[in-house]
Known about the structure:
mainly alpha, Lysozyme, 2 domains, globular
Amino acid sequence: MDLSKRHKFARFSNFSRTLALIVSPFLFGFAASAQTPAISEVSKTASNSVAKTAPADDYKKGLSDLAALYEIEVQRLEKENTQLKDLYKDGLVARMVVEANEKSLSDARAKLEKARTDIAEANKPAAPIVADRSAVLFGASDTSWSTRNSKVDGLIRLYGNKYGVDSYLIYCLMSQESGFSSGATSNKGAQGLMQLMPGTAARYGVTNPYDVAQSIMGGTRYLKDLLTMFNGRIDLALAGYNAGEGAVIKYNYSIPPYSETRNYVRLISMRYSKGKAPKTLTKPAI
């Protein structure tokens, strides 16, 4: 290897290590104390705003925070991609390394685009609310949501009823996890509609995580076990689904101080609560 190539490779290595030190703490679930000041401030502001803002504003703030995290990841991967292509031209890295980076970049861009779409939807004027006696008595209607795939909708209801988990909660979780894409694969290796990690899939007998029925069955059973483990606390169950039940236990049965996990719990909880109607009927005025 000539001297110029060595220098280029060394610069890229230093560049990658520096970016990893800056970005990885809050993108991959390290403690909040390891975050950079700018992102720590975003996370701190998001946490403090819960009690001070209206639910709709808090939901939008959570979306903005999540989009900011995704944008940082996209920028990191774009810079890394440019460096890798230069190294590939010089014969210093294999093609498969470049392709792996491009796949990660594509996934990160998709997440950023979804977050931006969710922000645009959240900013639309609210539709008029039509009172419905059955919705007030029994909560959100079972037909008030749809993945636009009748098979997936039916499986969500089937396994929700079988394992005693609200089908609308499964729907909200699936939307956040995969955007209803059965072929979704995360950078961390989570797979399918319910984004099951290989170990979790094996625990619940899922042999093909990309099979929609197996994914929904395994994900619903896992969510049910988490709800049972945390005494019905939806926020802790969601935190466990995202970061692992061990992380929730480690932090004294509270939501772990990871930016991604806290935004994840906030967004799904807000969506779930907004879609659920009151289950008690107030006495009408006479």
